[in-house]
Amino acid sequence: MNTTLKLPFYAKFAFIAVGFFALICTMYVGKHIIVPLLYATVFAILLNPFVNFLVNKKINRKLAISIAVLFIQ
Asked: What is the dihedral of CA 31, 32, 38, 41, to 10 degrees?
């Protein structure tokens, strides 16, 4: 049984507007958590080739990560 719910335009618009408002409020409240996580993700992606290079040179992965982190400071 395939039943689809047909909503009028104003109901769809209200759902989208409330959802967009909730997303913006969540991003505003969580900016002190989201921004550092984004920066950490970018740094991890950028340092990954250097860590892989050190691991290929027979250095322990934990030590390679530590060297990479100390190298960027």
From this structure: -160
Residues recorded for the chain: 73
Q: What is the mean pLDDT of residues 29-39?
A: 90
pTM for the complete prediction?
0.59
**Structure token pair of residue 32:** 């002190």
- Percentage of residues in the chain with pLDDT exceeding 70? 97
User: CB-side exposure of 4: number of CA atoms within 13 Å?
Assistant: 3
**CA atoms of 2 and 47, how far apart (whole Å):** 50
* Alpha carbon 28 to chain centroid, angstroms: 15
All residues at 6 or more sequence positions from 7 whose CB lies less than 8 Å from its CB, including other chains: 15
